[in-house]
Write a structure and sequence with these properties.
It contains 18 helices and 12 strands. The chain has 2 domains: 2-301, 7-stranded beta/alpha barrel; 314-411, no CATH class. A hairpin with a 2-residue loop joins strand 11 (406-407) and strand 12 (410-411). Helix content is 47%, strand content 11%. The chain is of the alpha/beta class. The strands form 4 sheets. Strands 1, 2, 3, 7 and 10 form a 5-stranded parallel β-sheet that branches. Strands 4-5-6 form a 3-stranded parallel β-sheet. The N and C termini lie far apart (63 Å).
Length: 412
């Protein structure tokens, strides 16, 4: 059985906490707080990106002559890559050192947006193509498997991914869709929707054992050792176990003091002790296995890896979020008609899903997660900030259209 280890690598461009910076000379500085972005990035760089990437590269190198080699995959957003190029270019060079055949870079939306949920997918196409281009330019790989933002998935997203040329797409192994079936197999969308692309499912239980429960002393399986974890993987049935987690799990969400890096260093060796287990890349798994059945997710019942519900309520669950989402979607024609690269880029940065995630109003465990990631004091404050920025931005768009002799998308 194959084991895919995949990391989501993302950082958003965070907004000014209290709205528009009126003294700024460009739209980016007017809306986005680069001082704060740099602080967060460099903190995570120290705690996660440098040590984790070095460990993974050391593992690949150490096991290159083994019969069963270690392999790893990354799904990098364009917004993360831009920040890494600006503040840690040596980190990009480190990723380039992974030997050919040991690493895969997945496709996804450049801006980590919800464009896959828009009424039409033209913007989704543009953002996925843009991300694929930067991956090809930096790492020499054309992505052949992809994940949509936060593993958001429905049949129409699968159809669009197939039209973009992808052979596989990841999503959550949601029990309410799977029923009695296992996430450890490849599936396909309904044939009338897409007949070539294959669906790979995240093993939620095994992934969250590391991502959420690794340092939880209340957990009856704490402490989690590499030996124990490998035995759980070995006891699984199926074609492939997909372990898909945030890269920040390593050192940021699970601090170094928890032993997470020792766990990571030992895991490949422990997995390889089992004759029937081997690390693979998603592109290899897609070529190797046929789907065993349909994974049917109607577009009004989209799934994701977020929260207990595993739906899109983390971003669209309250009226504040829905208002902002709809406003951003409606602006597309006017934004593109400006022909202004700064306006178009700003609009796409405002689409980043984190902005909506930060104004979620859920309670209890899921609410704690949202509050952990949000830099706003309350969701309502975040909504006020985003709406102020959107109002200002819409004025900038209207002004540019007037300068170009356009009004409401039409010539005067």
């Amino acid at each position: 059985m194959d084991v895919n280890l995949i990391f989501e690598v993302h950082q958003p461009m965070r907004l000014h906490k209290y709205g528009v910076n009126g003294s700024a000379k460009n739209l980016y500085d007017r809306y986005f707080n680069d001082e704060f972005n740099r602080y967060i990035f460099e903190r995570v760089l120290r705690k996660c990106y440098w040590p984790a990437t070095n460990i993974l590269l050391d593992l690949v190198t150490a096991m290159r002559h083994e019969k069963k080699k270690f392999k790893v995959a990354f799904s990098m957003t364009g917004t993360w890559i831009e920040q890494a190029e600006k503040w840690a270019p040596d980190l990009i060079e480190l990723f380039k050192q992974f030997p050919k055949g040991s690493v895969e870079f997945l496709g996804e939306t450049y801006y980590h947006s919800l464009s896959g949920l828009y009424n039409d997918h033209d913007e989704f196409f543009d953002q996925v193509r843009q991300q694929s281009e930067i991956i090809k330019d930096l790492f020499g790989q054309k992505p052949v498997t992809m994940t949509n933002t936060e593993l958001i998935y429905n049949n129409l997203i699968a159809k669009s991914a197939e039209e973009l040329g992808f052979k596989g797409i990841f999503t959550e192994g949601a029990p309410h869709v799977l029923g009695w079936r296992s996430p450890n197999y490849l599936y396909s969308p309904p044939k009338q929707v897409a007949n070539k692309i294959k669906v790979l499912l995240r093993n939620r239980q095994l992934t969250d054992d590391v991502g959420y429960r690794f340092s939880a002393k209340w957990w009856d399986q704490w402490p989690l050792t590499a030996e124990k974890y490998a035995s759980w993987i070995a006891a699984s049935q199926g074609q492939v176990v997909n372990l898909f987690m945030d890269y920040e799990t390593l050192g940021e969400h699970q601090w170094e003091e928890t032993g997470i890096f020792w766990f990571l260093k030992a895991l490949p060796w422990q997995v390889n002790k089992y004759d029937h287990l081997q690390f693979s890349l998603p592109r290899e798994v897609v070529e190797k296995y046929d789907p065993v059945g349909e994974f049917d997710v109607y577009e009004l019942s989209s799934i994701s890896w977020a929260d207990i519900e595993m739906d899109v309520s983390a971003w669209l669950g309250n009226r504040m979020q829905q208002i902002i989402f709809n406003e951003l979607q409606k602006m597309r024609d006017d934004v593109l008609r400006t022909g202004d690269p700064e306006i178009i880029r700003t609009w796409r940065l405002l689409q980043t899903s984190d902005h909506l995630h930060n104004i979620c109003t859920k309670w209890w465990g899921d609410g704690d997660v949202h509050q952990y990631f949000s830099y706003f004091d309350t969701p309502q404050q975040g909504f006020e900030t985003i709406t102020q920025i959107l109002f200002d931005f819409k004025n900038a768009v209207a002004k540019k259209l007037m300068e170009n002799g356009l009004k409401n998308g039409r010539r005067k």
